[in-house]
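Entry:
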Amino acid sequence: MRDVFDGRMLRVAVIGAGQAGLSAAYYLAARGLEPWRDLVVLDANDGPGGAWRHRWDSLTFDRAHAIHPLPGAPLETPDPQEPANRVVPRYYGDYERRFALPVLRPVTVTAVTHDDGGFTVHTDRGPVAAASVISATGSWDSPYLPHYPGIERFTGRQLHTHDYRSAEEFRGQRVLVVGGGTSAAQAVQELHTHGAEPVWSTRRTPQWTRRVFDEDWGLNVERSVSARTRQGLPPLSVSAATGLPLTDVYLPDIASRLLVSRGPIVRFTEHGVVLDGPGPDGFGRPDQGEAEALVGAAPALPGVPTTGPSSRSAVPERGAQRRDEGRSGTSLWETPIDAVLWATGFRAHLPHLRGLGIRERSGGIIMADDGVTVVKLPGLYLAGYGSSASTLGATRAGRKAAMAALRFARERDEAAA
């Protein structure tokens, strides 16, 4: 029954075996779809865990974003110091076996096409025919790399958090960390702990917030993101939608001036970067938003520039050079760097849906009120897109997509009767 490439029509094909894909498969099987005959989950990985299996070893469970339990199987409390890339794959693998979910791997989906007979999921192992498709491919395979002037001239190392494995590789180096989310903040902390000298750059004032990150907050974030996807607008980045939590994890390093944004990038040079942040002589720093009052509340860490909480100036950045560039009162300055870590997030990974014509000119996809149904193409559902990109949202989206796919199958059967 596992030969799903024989041309027979499945009820539902799920693409992706992360949080959303496993949640969808669970609900579909629980509502009567027979694994392998009616339902299959296609996973590009060679083992369970989704994107979590690719996270860096130093990202321990207690430092990972909250991991929401899958339906029907509570997540036992693991060792908080165990790497998340071990905890989550173990949990997902146990889950697949416990509920006998029909996960087929490794299978790479290259395209999805549609005609009056249904969908065809094209893979590196052959085509799979299905009445409906739930795409739950997340974003891990689509890291976002912004372009800045002069980046092609920079001779140092560049990498995205997608490819980041260990801070130890950067010991003794000065590393520009770019991004305004928790991944960037945690990278700054980890690099410093391992003997590197991080310089944090954010495009805007860091979005620190004191709000409580509880379930009500999560629902409000989902509603705001859903409002965009219903209009076909691209989803916001995670940090733009959620902000950075002012918690005990970050407070000491804000106070010691380690977690201080040095301003946005203007351009790169051969061996450095020009930022727009401090004063014209390389002193000080830009405003830190909600965290401003905390900066300078503790002795500076070794190797971290000291800056006062009011004047925001004391000692210039090491190697800083003023860059007037024809502007009076400029705040541009250049600092030498050895490497760039792009902690700039990810975009929804949907290249396999490119030929279906579901994207708007804005770059987004118009989603129905349920947040999972693609308005332009009945029978196609996105779980883990937009408001359901978090693990909490992905679990709910998996259920919604499963219920919608079941309704679609029932209506299709009734129409054919």
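The chain is about 20% helix and 20% strand.
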